[in-house]
Amino acid sequence: MGKDADYCRYAERLFDRVSADDLAARASVDWLAIAANLYAFLQSRKAGAPVVRVFNPDSARDGWFAPCTTIEIVNDDMPFLVDTVTLVMTKAGLSVQMLMHPVPMVTRDGRGKLTGVGKGNAESIIHLEVERQPEQSLKQMRQAVVSALDDVRVSVEDWSTMRNKMLQIADELPRRNMPIDAAQREEIEAFLRWAADNHFTFLGYREYRVVRQGKAEVLVAVDGSGLGLLRGDLRNTSPRSTVALAANQPGGASEALILTKTNSRATVHRSGYMDYIGVLVYDKNGKPVVEQRFLGLYTSSAYNRRPWDIPVVRQRHEEVMARSGFGPNSHNGKALRHIIETLPRDELFQSSADQLFRTSMGVVGLQDRGRSKLFLRRDRYGRFFSALAYIPRDRFNTDVRTRIEALLTEALHGERVDMTFHVGESSLAQMHMVIRPKQGADVDVDVAALETELTRIVRNWRDELRDELIAAHGEEAGMQLAARYVANLPASYVEAVTPAGAVADLRQIERLQGSHDLEQRLYRDPADPDALRFKLMRNGDAIHLSDALPMMENMGLRVLAEHPYKLDLDEGRPGGSIVNIQDFEVRTAADVDIAAVGPAFEEAFEHIWAGTAESDGFNRLLLTARLSWREIAMLRGYCKYLLQTGAPFSQAYMETTLNRYPLIARLLVELFESRFDPAHSAGKDGTGSIDEAAREKLRLELEAITPEATRKSAGTLIEEVAYARGLDRDAQIDACMDALAILLENVASLDEDRILRSYIGTINATLRTSYYQLHDGRPREYISFKFDAAKVPDLPKPRPYREIFVYAPRIEGVHLRFGPVARGGLRWSDRREDFRTEVLGLVKAQMVKNTVIVPVGSKGGFFVKRPPAQGDRDAQLAEGIACYKLFINGLLDITDNIVDGRTVPPKAVIRHDGDDPYLVVAADKGTATFSDIANGVSAEHGYWLGDAFASGGSVGYDHKAMGITAKGAWESVKRHFRAMDRDCQTEDFTCVGIGDMSGDVFGNGMLLSRHIRLLAAFDHRHILLDPDPDAEKSFVERERMFKLPRSSWDDYDKKLISEGGGLYPRSAKSIRITPQVRAALDIDEGVEQMTPAELMSAILRAPVDLLWNGGIGTYVKSSRESRCHVLGPAWEALRVNGGYVVEATATSDGPRPDHLPARLRARGPPVRLDLSLKPADPAAGDWVI
Length: 1185
Fold this sequence. Notes:
Blueprint: H1 2-15, H2 20-24, H3 28-41, E1 51-55, H4 59-62, E2 68-76, H5 81-91, E3 98-100, E4 105-108, E5 114-117, E6 121-131, H6 138-157, H7 159-172, H8 182-196, E7 200-213, E8 216-221, E9 227-228, E10 240-241, E11 257-265, E12 273-282, E13 288-298, H9 300-304, H10 313-324, H11 331-342, H12 345-350, H13 353-364, E14 373-378, E15 385-392, H14 398-411, E16 414-423, E17 428-437, H15 447-458, H16 461-473, H17 475-485, H18 491-496, H19 499-511, E18 519-525, E19 528-539, H20 545-554, E20 558-568, E21 578-587, H21 594-610, H22 621-624, H23 629-644, H24 651-660, H25 662-676, H26 692-705, H27 711-724, H28 729-744, H29 750-765, E22 766-769, E23 774-775, E24 778-779, E25 783-787, E26 802-807, E27 811-817, E28 822-823, E29 825-829, H30 835-849, E30 856-864, H31 873-893, E31 897-899, E32 902-904, E33 921-923, H32 928-941, E34 950-951, H33 959-962, H34 964-979, E35 989-994, H35 1000-1005, E36 1012-1018, E37 1022-1025, H36 1031-1043, E38 1062-1065, E39 1071-1072, H37 1075-1081, E40 1089-1090, H38 1092-1100, E41 1106-1109, E42 1116-1117, ...
Parallel strand pairs: 28-30, 29-30, 29-33, 33-34, 35-36, 35-41, 42-43
Antiparallel strand pairs: 1-2, 2-6, 3-6, 4-5, 4-6, 7-8, 7-9, 7-13, 8-10, 11-12, 12-13, 14-15, 15-17, 16-17, 18-19, 19-21, 20-21, 22-25, 23-24, 25-26, 26-27, 27-30, 31-32, 36-37, 37-38, 39-40, 44-45
Helix pairs in contact: 5-6, 7-8, 10-13, 11-13, 14-15, 16-17, 16-19, 23-29, 25-28, 25-29, 26-27, 27-28, 31-32
């Protein structure tokens, strides 16, 4: 029963302080095994010695297992045991996972065997678990624990002796001979008594005597004087020079008390360097002869005492307060007192009054200023540096702390650093570091440089940005910008962008006003100068990648990554509270000189984004040939013109060719400038002398884009072209032509050679351009080119007398004149690829119409390139009118005017032709409205013809109202029907048509007989199917639509459409074909669906009495004609051949077709017969149309 009771009492004490969480973390059987094993370990211990075991638990051996290493200790109970053992584990880099420390009362017999639990002497039992260690390291761990326990034992055993020794010295001080005054003596005595009063943990004591060895005086330990940790053998100690004594330091003769730190860390209680209290004993001559040295650690109560309560320290405190001149109750006085109170106690103990004054007054100067400051004090014995760093509290973090530690460690050759910090209510955080230099290191400290670097470390990114803004914009403006932006920049932006980069960003962000404004910058990454970045900034939403990426790729940038940042700013900001920044990592095919191409690249992107420049492969010339966006627009304009003339190469091929030969592309621009730039008239600088700067600039530009491999061979021609800049215009043109001729010899591809020669020929065929004209100080959004068509290479016939091509991102248009005096209308075309071909066909007809008047034929047409994607009819019309105005302006910008009977050339236009003031246009579509618009533009230009510029306006004749063209054509229709013994004015007949009722020819024609049965019609928007129409009702409906402004087939009354018919958009993928439509249009049985193109082709082949073409395009051709004969491919999918055989009877008036009322036997698809055409051979049996 006795042993069971002992075990129960032991177990009760063992688990008394184990937390419920720890108990729950392990199985009960494991706890029982731990308790049993530890109780067995407790059974035997010799008096005055600990028993220690270190092991890795094993289930088979110990009855329990855990992935840990266990340390178990049984020892006499004494202070510092747990602290010291934990300290050993910490030094080994281990963390304590479980700790049990019961202190039961036990009795043992003379051999150390356990005889009872519950009474007797207190013994400390420690069960401690750490991370599992390899078996081979367990012995070393045990030795470290045993050594530490030995240190604890000697320190505890000698503690009272060491304390009594300090009190004895305090008692002796009044009688000792000391070179200090009575007040100092009393203060030292008070300090010793204060330290002995539980303010100092005694760990060691020893006396040292000054003896002479040879010529030097040294400190030698006194044998037998050691206590605690210094109780050991003196054989390992060596004499030290007395130079280390405080009395031998400058100004240290009166320092009878030494307060400092040792070079050794404590092995007991705490891991810090041990505190050192030394008292000097003097001979009758005031020379130190003995040092009585105490080692230990100041207790926590010592560190918590106020400075004015600590002897010696209070004396220094009073001296500092007195020297400051601050009243004790003044604001500064209270602040100084608080600063001294918050200083590390080690600084108070170790600093002299002078050092303490400098430090504390320096800190006073920092209050409420948010500045950083470093105070560095070197230990008088040279063993360490004490550094006090004050930094703004809001900047103190782990990163700043480690960077400051690294700074001081490197600068002071530190081997070991101890750091503590204090963050209180003050605006400053305090860091105290003790840096111990490497043995023998020669430390030369530049405190000012260290403090500068400290400021740089502590100053965060936002501080640097604030300074950069002030430096860039001045103090007032810089502070305003800082207040507006600095606090609102997101952390991701701060981490990625340098302050200098942010200044550049904010400068651009300040320029953003509206939601459509855009700022951009091409730059090198400061962190990696080889890396290229492109940054976009705009108010509101970010640019979609699907929009931005194609633009950048067309400009020669390959996008690698995007870094987006969103700035949430003040609500009152003019451009809105949200700014989005998109920073792209990009790569180019070749190295880029940012200084040379950056501004032009950024300007180009802005115009491309705004829509004033197009996005295509020509934009790669920004980087390859270093062209500006306007120069590229000029080359693009020539490309667009060549495509309209039927050039056999695609735009993409032309883009690739110019980019493959950047020097040729640049010389094409130089050729254009030499011909048309007014500033190139004489190459002068305005004073009549040669502009050498312009020559040198051009030479450097050409050299920069010349490939390295050909730079030497091309050097001469570059010099010649640059030199020609100072000569007259013809010499500049000749130099460019010579250089181009030489460079073309190296173009291997025949196709590429043809493209480049087409450019050269077309530029030389250009007579005028609006390229250099400015409007309100800026270039127009379009460029006009006037050509001598006879000189344009490979231009298909017929060739006009003069030709004006207007290019813009929104519109392309052409005006063809077949003589100096010509007239004809303008056409709004829907043929993007070949509107020039359409206009050429129209002008041929105009030539016929103008045969009996003085002006020959002319015609113009334009294509709207960017109609509103989801716009209604009004939006479409508004864009068309806007483009029409651009087109008219483009024509008049390069046309001569007549003022007071004298020809006045246009401004900023170099003319390579004579006077040419005659330009007349008229609107074929829209009649008076478009003519009035044209005349309005003419009036703005002050053009000499006034409202005669565009006939058919509101003050002229109305084409649509008069219906001249339709009425003339209808006479042929009536003759056609008379030939078939039919009267189309009194008898119903079937008809299909091309056009709509808003048009002049179609609308008027479809109202010239009330007996028209219109089975089908189509225009560029709709397809109308009415297989069995009521002639009278449909006539009334067409008449209504004719009068309706801007009508379309969509306005047709659907209730009037016969069964099986309908109205369909041409954008539909397929259209259902009803039986009624199949019958009316003679479509094969079984066809239930057709595409719009297939259906329109069927309409053209329908077996009706009349095909009325009032629309735009060539739909019918001879089977013997190729595509080029019918002027372009636009309607190739719809176009039908018109050849068939008609049995005819020879008459005096020529062949007369027989059996016309019946269905014709066709060689090809049947079409309607136009009897106004005559065969070449009147006697022919086959009449081929």
